[in-house]
Design brief:
Blueprint lengths: L1 H15 L1 H36 L3 E6 L2 H6 L10 H13 L3 E7 L1 H12 L16 E6 L5 H8 L5 E6 H44 L1 H9 L4 H36 L4 H4 L8 H30 L3
Antiparallel strand pairs: 1-3, 1-4, 2-3
Length: 305
């Protein structure tokens, strides 16, 4: 009988404050969707880092005849066979180096033609204008500076470049977008909490006569508060379900279909469905607990029991 009474009170409360309940559901859904999206963005960045950092190379570009005339670093002339052999020997001795591969000027020219064949500059380039290089794969990409310090400025070396620097700029942008989403999520969360508190306050005020009668007949504080807490929890769960749907639909249309980013950006290793599904229970749990806890503390102030 008590359970039936609590459920009936929940239904009455939701119907009386239908507009505010709808606003609570929408704000909770948006804030939780942004929260889940931020978690997925963090996973995506981590996945991309693991995928791309593993492929990062440090490139040691060697001086050619053209550089000897135009680049002060190559003022002593093009790299010699002895210098190349010494560079390769020193690389093999370094514990941070996993693998070293050599790219000749002809190979560099071929790769350039494959990637930028439509460029107007491609028709005027010749193989001797491009530099041969050593492509160094590190055991830990963070140890780039060890290689740069050892070879930058050495005779026969034109420059030492780290591809990780380019990736760091990309990941910095993605992390910035993630923090922006978290900031918007925090704002929406504050709005949702304010709506929940106001909804509970209005609901408690509209039923002050019923609660007064319940106090007179000896009902416990918990029994009086339960319908209000459950109303907020139900609205929160509905908002959490909507947020889960938004995450699933977003993953489906952005990556698999619709925008089909997985096909258009096949160089990016996108997160799978397992990453999305593992976030849904957390989103639902927050959707249930956040409004219930907010309602509990609001009732201590607005409901004299």
């Amino acid at each position: 009988m008590r359970a039936q009474f609590v459920l009936s009170e929940i239904g009455v409360g939701l119907r009386r404050n239908l507009t505010m309940t709808f606003a609570v559901i929408v704000s909770v859904a948006l804030s939780l969707a942004l929260f889940g999206g931020s978690l997925l963005m963090r996973d995506q960045v981590s996945t991309m880092k693991g995928y791309w950092y593993d492929k990062v190379n440090v490139s040691i570009f060697l001086c050619n005849k053209g550089d000897a005339e135009s680049d002060p670093k190559c003022a002593k002339g093009a790299v010699t066979a002895e210098q190349k052999q010494q560079i390769l020997s020193d690389l093999d001795k370094m514990p941070v180096v996993e693998k070293v591969s050599h790219e000749s000027a002809d190979q560099a020219y071929k790769h350039y033609k494959e990637q930028f064949g439509d460029s107007p500059l491609a028709s005027s380039l010749t193989p001797d204008q491009l530099q041969e290089s050593y492509r160094v794969k590190l055991k830990d990409p963070e140890k780039y500076q060890v290689v740069a310090t050892a070879f930058d400025g050495r005779d026969g070396v034109q420059s030492v470049q780290d591809q990780k620097g380019i990736l760091d700029n990309l990941f910095g942008l993605l992390n910035g977008m993630n923090w922006a989403a978290l900031a918007v999520m925090a704002l929406m969360l504050v709005v949702a909490l304010m709506l929940i508190v106001n909804t509970v306050r209005v609901s408690a005020f509209s039923r002050r006569r019923e609660t007064g009668i319940m106090r007179l007949v000896g009902a416990s504080s918990f029994y009086i508060q339960m319908p209000f807490i459950m109303e907020a929890a139900v609205a929160g769960v509905i908002g959490g379900v909507v947020a889960c749907g938004m995450l699933l639909v977003g993953r489906y249309f952005m990556i698999d279909h619709g925008l089909a980013l997985s096909e258009k950006l096949n160089l990016i290793n996108f997160i799978g469905w397992d990453a999305v599904l593992t976030k849904l229970p957390l989103v639902l749990a927050i959707g249930l607990l956040m409004p219930a806890i907010a309602a509990f503390f609001a009732l201590r102030k607005y409901l004299k029991v």
